[in-house]
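Appendix B, example 12.
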Amino acid sequence: MNKRNLFIALGMILLITFEQPALSSSFIYNPAFKTITINDDSLRMLQIQKRVLEIQAMDFTKLSAKERKSIYKELRQMQKETDKKDNGGVYLSVGAIIIILLVLILIAK
């Protein structure tokens, strides 16, 4: 395989690997109705986000120690739930991207 074909193949693999599936799996666009349908997971995430905002707006000085502890446990449980639905996405730092590009350039030469 010549260098150009190798470079194109690696580029295609990178494009396929790093696509953003979170948006495509959460929302379904229906052009006939011009609406966006939200699946159950997205609805639950919105509920969790709303509850977290409610908790942030609370005044904790007026709560007892038991109430604060129960709210803390609720937040931890919601965090575990959101971590499970995160789908384990791949996150790359700028340094990692630079290293990958350098390796691709070295392979292409």
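The longest strand covers residues 27-30. The chain has a mean pLDDT of 77.
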